[in-house]
Design a protein that fits this description.
alpha/beta; Rossmann fold; 2 domains; six-stranded mixed beta sheet; five-stranded parallel beta sheet; binds coenzyme A
């Protein structure tokens, strides 16, 4: 079964509620119809029900819940909570009300924070930063995790490596130059993402141009330190570094270059030392190996929020809703 079909089946097995705040975007409406029709998730759309339905055309969105900021009965509760959460940044109740009445992304994130939904998907009509900022400010990172990062699920055709050709690559989207501690947190978050989305045992490799001391350089030292920190943070995870990519995934090369490593040769979670490597690496595999790249999946937040490309299609929104639902399922456990 293709990766996305599997994700959809898992999403349907424990249905979550996902907020789609960009209800004015036609692709969101088409996606809502498809998500509801397939039973992938319950959907909250933000805006006036009659107005949104008048634009729905052929798409049936009757099963959605509508939250209109102008009439929402619990708005005062959200205002009080947002002002409380952002008090240290000087936010007043008036400012909190203004932002929740006018910015659907902040309202969507607050609906997640207050438990009306398990996650949010947006970005069809908003820039990445505008989607992520409220999530980072309000939801914050998960307990024990220092920073949010962006993973791609790579589905490589005809590939014997990884989990039958499935890998998590990260960080490919958010943190340009992580230090050793940040890299360690990215590795732990990525293992959790692998468990949530691939439903298999993660084997995490922190990449370098050196395998187990084959080269000496401050960049190698950073990866060695990150590996030590990650092992201390999550000793239960199968994780190792510093390893080159070939030694990470290929058993014969892993045996030669890192004979004592329990991860070398079987890695399915690939951690790049910085964003240059991560972003370039996922695009190389996507283009040259004709792999499907799903993401970026934002990981490390206390509750899931995912960003879309502004060039996305309705089916991309459906897939991202399913991925977000699986992250929400994991968070509930
Ligand atoms: C992530 C991003 C939204 C941060 O927003 P910003 O406007 O620069 O604002 P700040 O740096 O003040 O961060 C806002 C909040 O997010 C937090 N934050 C920023 N980056 C974070 C991270 N990686 N993990 C956790 N929290 C983070 C900050 O601590 C801050 O919290 P606070 O307001 O409670 O103190 C911004 O860097 C961005 O737009 N990145 C673009 C990412 C992108 O386009 N990637 C390529 C596409 S895939």
């Amino acid at each position: 079964m293709a990766f996305l079909d599997k994700i959809v089946e898992i999403a349907k097995s424990d249905v979550q509620t996902i907020v789609l705040p960009e209800a004015f975007d036609p692709r969101t409406i088409e996606a809502t119809h498809k998500v509801l029709e397939k039973g992938i998730a319950k959907v909250i759309l933000i805006g006036d029900e009659a107005e949104i339905k008048s634009t729905a055309g052929q798409w049936n969105i009757d099963g959605a819940e509508f939250i209109n900021p102008k009439t929402f009965k619990d708005m005062d509760k959200l205002v009080t909570k947002l002002a409380e959460l952002r008090k240290s940044k000087g936010m007043t109740e008036d400012q909190a009300r203004e932002i929740l009445m006018t910015n659907v992304l902040y309202l969507g994130v607050m609906l997640v924070k207050m438990g009306y939904a398990g996650g949010m998907v947006a970005g069809a009509a908003n820039a990445t930063g505008d989607v992520l900022r409220p999530a980072l400010q309000i939801l914050k990172t998960a307990p024990g995790i220092k920073l949010a990062s962006g993973a791609f699920i790579m589905e490589v055709p005809d590939c014997e490596y990884g989990e039958n050709g499935i890998f998590i690559f990260s960080d490919c989207a958010l943190n340009p130059n992580p230090n050793a501690e940040e890299l360690a947190h990215i590795a732990v978050s990525s293992a959790n993402t692998f468990k949530a989305l691939v439903h298999a045992e993660p084997h995490v490799s922190i990449l370098s141009f050196s395998s187990k001391g084959s080269a000496k350089h401050p960049d190698v030292d950073k990866v060695i330190e990150a590996t030590q920190i990650a092992k201390a943070l999550a000793p239960e995870i199968s994780l190792d570094g510093e390893l080159q990519f070939d030694a990470s995934i290929d058993a014969a090369i892993g045996k030669k270059k890192a004979p004592d490593s329990t991860v070398a040769g079987q890695a399915n979670v690939i951690i790049f030392p910085d964003l240059d490597a991560g972003n370039i690496g996922y695009k190389l595999v996507q283009r040259l190996a004709k792999a499907n790249a799903y993401g970026p999946v934002i990981q490390g937040l206390s509750m899931p929020v995912n960003d879309l490309s502004r060039g996305c299609f309705a089916d991309d929104i459906v897939g991202t809703v399913a991925l977000t639902a699986l992250q929400a399922q994991m968070q509930n456990k």
